[in-house]
Amino acid sequence: MIIRYALFEGEIHAGRESEFRHFVRERLVPLWTQFPGAEEVRVLDGTARDEGAPAYAMALAISYPDMDSCNRALQSEVRFQSRDVTGELLKMFTGRVHHHVFEANEYATN
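RESULT FIELD:
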């Protein structure tokens, strides 16, 4: 399994946290869940961190069965639509967004 993360490193503008989270749920999640080949979409809202650690307001994790599926999603029309809408979201945010791709390895717990 491949998981592509969008990491929102920085902070939501003071007093706009609820608006930011609502915008993500109402405007972006419906687009992200339409990415072709996506098996799961998770939005992780930053709540706490170690002292001295960088702030991450949000992380988006989209899982795909393989890298070919991920690449097809990155070339899809809905992905380009979501990038335009994300531009609106970034007006409530100071920082940067960067993407990372991981291969997931899962292990059972006792």
